[in-house]
Amino acid sequence: MIFDAHFHIIDPRYPLVANQGYLPPAFTASDYKARVSHLQVSGGVVVSGSFQQFDQQYLVAALQQLGTGFVGVTQIPEYVTDKEIRQLHASGIRAVRFNVQRGGSATVDHLEELARRVYDLAGWHTELYIDSRELKDLLPVLKRLPRISIDHLGLSKEGLPYLLELVADGVRVKATGFSRCNFNVVEVMQQINAVDRSALMFGTDLPSTRAPQPFSDDDVALVKDNFPEDVAKRIFYQNAKDFYFQV
After folding, report:
1. CA 57 to chain centre
2. Are residues 66 and 40 in contact, defined by beta-carbon separation less than 8 angstroms?
3. What integer pLDDT is reported at residue 104 of this predicted model?
């Protein structure tokens, strides 16, 4: 069973904004359901992308279509109102994303203030799409924040020491987007798991926008073949389910 900790829905009925000249093809909730129908996905996390910026309509609609067991991660500006945050929470959103790698979100200048605000108001955690090399300068801030996750294993081998330091401090890491990383993903996942068995959260990263190689069922096999069954179950399901449904 899989709780898909990271995927995107791209619905052309709602606003899309080109990011670095890129507009993704459609990938609707129906497309997602069809793609994972054989993978025993019991729930998961719809993550707002750079090309969706601060649009919330698509995310709320996607969660309604996907149904029970699915939650959202949104991008909101620093000037968002308390009322809007509470409304988004009621719609199933459970985290705010800072897209440091691609843009389209609030900037890290507002990281601490906004992360604390959404946590205090709604219990949301904060997610970062960031090259782990950039974590070095953010370590003091991130260690002060209550709940954090990092996308795509941090992307870079060079920043792994900073990522592991955060894992030791309780930060979660998404085992997603394997082809985006410049290292042996099995070795890095094993290192992360050795620090904290609750840290790794598997996701499909569908539809794998701009990834060198899209998600395939081989990514599932990679985890199954390289971790004991009890550990694999935590990576595939329990870690993320516990994290997203903690509130």
Report:
1. 19
2. no
3. 63
The CA angle 32-180-223, to the nearest 5 degrees, is 70
Euclidean distance between CA atoms 135 and 194, whole angstroms:
20
Please state the pTM of the whole predicted model. 0.95
CATH of 2-244, one of 4.10.91.10, 3.40.50.1370, 3.40.50.2300, 3.20.20.140: 3.20.20.140
Domain residue spans in the chain?
2-244
CA dihedral 156, 160, 166, 168 (to 10 degrees): 140
Contact, 150 vs 173, CB < 8 A?
yes
Contacts of residue 92, defined as CB under 8 A and 6 or more positions apart, other chains included, come to 60, 63, 70, 71, 72
Of the pLDDT bands very low, low, confident and very high (cuts 50, 70, 90), residue 22 is confident
Residue that the structure tokens 């459970």 belong to: 94
* Helix H or strand E encompassing 120: helix 111-122
Q: How far apart are CA 127 and CA 148, in angstroms?
A: 6
Q: Looking at per-residue confidence, does 100 or 29 come out higher?
A: 29
- For the purposes of burial, counting CB atoms within 10 Å of the CB of 131, is it exposed (0-12), middle (13-18) or buried (19 or more)? middle
